[in-house]
């Protein structure tokens, strides 16, 4: 698992947004909007309920009128156009008043164990007023302008799992609808999208008696934006067991498809169609960042090659998908190879969708170490999993160029330059390769017959690395096999890996360390869910 | 802000604060993770976890963690009392506890979450001058005096006996869904946690990515 490859992942049918939509349709969830009390400036309160066969969840939305100069994507902003929580159940009026006093403050407020997530969003400066003006004038917005931006509001954080007082993951993880990772967060964003679309139509209607509502096709082409920075990057390093399960599910899904010996004509037809639709998605993918522009260009060229190759492929040959993967390894860029993996899963929901049930992890207890293990075996295991790190010359400035730390000022993860900033003493444990190399150096000074527990009493600073080695014994994809503090490391590769598992599209890096994305673009709205095709919505 | 909401914490945020506080007090990242787990587990059984760890950190502040680390004879090489996190982690590493006497050890109740990890189908009875606690793989049941949130001496070092016994009748201690964290306890923990944050510089302000 290398960073370059992780930074080229695409959404797939295993992604958490798509898992949520399939679950909602399968279990016939119903939706309602009990409160929608918003004035012409966008200020007020709205609630959206999602009811499962067992219980109800409610998005509580607060609209605000934010002056332009206060609108910021920074996670450290203090005011937003709209703020949200996902409430567990149906909130009482007392709950709503409690939330009104806290939710607009976001990190500076508190929520309770009755809330599952906390979030906020800002209007797209490029599109918000334009769309309302169009609708108020009785016309539809320009579909091309809509496609270029892709959303009307952009979230900057969706906090869950106990943050700021919200319910712990362990309190809800036994519910079948929340068992897969990030389902509460995805539900929050899905309902935010519905709120935002209702809001623009409502504001247009208040502005003019001649206003129209959005054409359903244009309406669907709006997703919800998201701006993600370094704060998310450490997650992939601090949840090795969970990340292993995500990657393992994807690998197993690919293996199952590659193991298909005889491809049914309906399966090859579905694949060819989804490749064509993927081209539409790639063509609509714009980025102002050179790094991504190069990747999109190579991806476009890859699609040309793939379509030409498919024209000469005999799908009736045994194991034709396996042959296609071998061909891709020779002819496509890493971006193209990873897109192909996602596309190959599309016709095979019956083979792979059950793997979403394996993508959660119990990380509530630290993994136990076998203290009786002899140092010889510890060294062998370390070498087995971290040879890539032992091959790096850590004495040079480049491999050690960066340090992850948390700043006193904003309490947010940051990545600094170790050799020019006074941060080394505050380094977070987010460089498993360097730490493994340090442990290896200390292990060399011990006798092979001595034991791990003796070693760790003398060297407690290696305890977290010993734990990672133990995790890797049963979780082979738990570790990113790249140097996360190298001068050339790109944090956006970490962000993209995680966001692709969410189901995000249109990665648009704004620097090497923060990225804008689109979520749920093309997804059916709650009122369309019962009859929607959930296999193709993620492709334009 | 509502005072109740201020004190009503999720286990996740409490464990995150505990880990940072132990790291801030000089524990290694790995031991800080063990400490956070132990703090969270005690909190699940409503055992004044926050007060216990805040008191422990305040007591040990200024001394080296290594001095409170047990050697192979379960004594401190520096002749001081033992840290329950270091002892607990070592007990888990060796897969169980075969001896009886231990100590002196600070805040002995913090041993319970570690013994729980190795209890399997047995139980452990921990006793010291200030309290008593019975541990199985699914429960931690402490005597009332032991879990009294207002007991100021909870981190005092004590000689401890830990006896392994067949698991008897099922214990049914109270389990709670949230952590109640007193403002003064939270302040102490945040003070330790604050030590892991780098002072802001102009360069660091640019490091966030925008």
Explain how this protein is built.
With 540 residues, chain A is an alpha+beta fold. Chain A folds into three domains: 261 residues, no CATH class; 119 residues, no CATH class; 100 residues, no CATH class. Helix content of chain A is 42%, strand content 14%. Chain A is built from 20 helices and eleven strands. In chain A, the strands form two sheets. Chain A has a nine-stranded mixed beta sheet, sandwiched between helices. In chain A, a hairpin with a 5-residue loop joins strand 10 and strand 11. Chain B has one domain. Chain B has a five-stranded antiparallel beta sheet, covered by helices on one side. In chain B, helix 2 runs antiparallel to helix 3, helix 2 crosses helix 7 and helix 5 packs parallel to helix 6. Chain B is globular and about 60 Å long. Chain B starts with a helix and ends with a helix.
Low-pLDDT stretches of chain A are none
Alpha plus pi helix count of chain A: 20
- The low-confidence runs of chain B, each spanning 5 or more residues with pLDDT under 50, are none
Radius of gyration of chain B: 18 Å
Largest sheet of chain A, in brief, is: 9 strands, mixed
Oligomer: heterodimer
Task: Count up the domains of chain A.
Answer: 3
User: Biggest interface in this structure?
Assistant: A-B, 70 and 48 residues
Query: Percent helix among the residues of chain B?
Result: 25-40%
Strand residue content of chain A: 5-15%
Which sequence of strands runs across the widest sheet of chain A? 1-2-3-4-5-6-7-11-10
Brief descriptors of the model:
heterodimer; A: 540 residues; alpha+beta; 3 domains; 9-stranded mixed β-sheet; two-stranded antiparallel ribbon; 20 helices; B: 210 residues; 5-stranded antiparallel β-sheet; 7 strands; 38% helix
């Amino acid at each position: 698992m290398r960073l370059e490859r992780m930074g080229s992942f695409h959404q797939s049918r295993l992604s958490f947004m798509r898992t949520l939509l399939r679950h909602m349709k399968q279990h016939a969830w119903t939706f309602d909007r009990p409160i929608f009390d918003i004035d012409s400036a966008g200020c007020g309160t709205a609630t959206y309920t999602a009811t499962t066969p067992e219980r109800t969840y409610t998005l509580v939305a607060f609209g605000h009128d934010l002056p332009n100069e206060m609108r910021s994507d920074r996670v450290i902003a203090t005011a937003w156009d709209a703020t949200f929580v996902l409430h567990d159940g149906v909130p009482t009026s007392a709950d709503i008043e409690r939330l009104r006093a806290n939710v607009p403050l976001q990190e500076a407020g508190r929520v309770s164990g009755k809330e599952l997530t906390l979030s906020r969003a800002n209007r797209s400066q490029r599109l918000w007023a334009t769309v309302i003006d169009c609708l108020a004038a009785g016309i539809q917005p320009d579909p091309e302008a809509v496609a270029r931006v892709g959303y009307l509001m952009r979230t900057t954080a969706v906090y869950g799992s106990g943050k700021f007082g919200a319910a712990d993951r362990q309190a809800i993880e036994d519910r079948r609808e929340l068992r897969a990772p990030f389902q509460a967060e995805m539900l929050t964003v899905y309902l935010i999208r519905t709120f935002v679309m209702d809001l623009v139509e409502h504001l247009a209607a208040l502005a003019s008696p001649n206003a129209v509502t959005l054409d359903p096709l244009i309406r669907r082409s709006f997703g919800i934006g998201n701006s993600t920075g370094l704060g998310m990057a450490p997650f992939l390093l601090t949840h090795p067991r969970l990340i292993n399960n995500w990657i393992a599910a994807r690998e197993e899904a690919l293996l199952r498809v590659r193991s298909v010996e005889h491809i049914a004509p309906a399966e090859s037809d579905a694949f060819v169609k989804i490749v064509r639709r993927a081209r539409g998605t790639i063509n609509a993918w714009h980025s102002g960042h050179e790094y991504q522009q190069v990747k999109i260009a190579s991806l476009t060229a890859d699609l040309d090659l793939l379509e030409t190759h498919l024209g000469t492929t005999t799908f009736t040959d045994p194991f034709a998908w396996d042959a296609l993967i071998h061909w891709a390894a020779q002819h496509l860029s890493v971006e193209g190879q990873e897109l192909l993996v996602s596309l190959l899963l599309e016709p095979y929901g019956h083979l792979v969708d059950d793997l979403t049930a394996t993508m959660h992890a119990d990380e509530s207890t630290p993994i136990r170490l076998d203290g009786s293990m002899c140092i010889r075996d510890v060294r062998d295991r370390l070498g087995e999993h971290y040879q890539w790190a032992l091959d790096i010359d850590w004495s040079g400035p480049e491999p050690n160029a960066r340090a992850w730390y948390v700043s006193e000022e904003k309490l947010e993860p940051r990545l600094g330059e170790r050799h020019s900033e006074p941060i080394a003493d505050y380094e977070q444990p987010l460089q498993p390769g360097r730490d493994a190399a340090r442990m290896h150096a200390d292990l060399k000074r011990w006798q092979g017959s001595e034991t791990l527990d003796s070693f760790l009493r003398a060297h407690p600073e290696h305890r977290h690395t010993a734990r990672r080695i133990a995790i890797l014994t049963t979780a082979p994809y738990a570790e990113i096999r790249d140097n996360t503090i190298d001068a050339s490391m790109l944090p956006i590769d970490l962000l993209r890996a995680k966001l692709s598992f969410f189901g995000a599209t249109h990665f648009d890096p704004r620097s090497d360390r923060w990225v804008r994305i689109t979520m749920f673009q093309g997804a059916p709205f709650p009122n369309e869910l019962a009859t929607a095709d959930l296999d193709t919505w993620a492709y334009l | 802000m509502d005072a109740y909401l201020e004190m009503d914490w999720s286990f996740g945020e409490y464990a995150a604060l505990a880990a940072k506080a132990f790291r801030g007090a000089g524990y290694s990242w790995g031991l800080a993770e063990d400490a956070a787990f132990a703090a969270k587990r005690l909190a699940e059984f409503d055992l004044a976890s926050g007060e216990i760890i805040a008191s422990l950190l305040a007591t040990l502040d200024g001394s080296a963690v290594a001095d409170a680390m047990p050697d192979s004879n379960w004594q401190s090489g520096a002749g001081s009392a033992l840290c329950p996190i270091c002892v607990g982690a070592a007990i888990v590493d060796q897969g169980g506890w075969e001896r009886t006497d231990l100590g002196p050890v600070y805040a002995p109740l913090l041993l319970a979450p570690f013994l729980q990890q190795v209890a399997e189908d047995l139980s452990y009875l921990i006793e010291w001058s200030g309290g008593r606690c019975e541990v199985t793989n699914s429960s931690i049941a402490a005597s009332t005096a032991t879990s009294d949130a207002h007991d100021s001496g909870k981190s005092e070092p004590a000689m401890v006996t830990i006896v392994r016994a067949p698991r008897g009748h099922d214990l049914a201690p109270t389990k709670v869904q949230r952590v109640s964290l007193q403002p003064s306890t939270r302040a102490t923990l945040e003070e330790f946690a604050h030590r892991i944050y780098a002072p802001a510089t102009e360069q660091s302000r640019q490091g966030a990515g925008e």
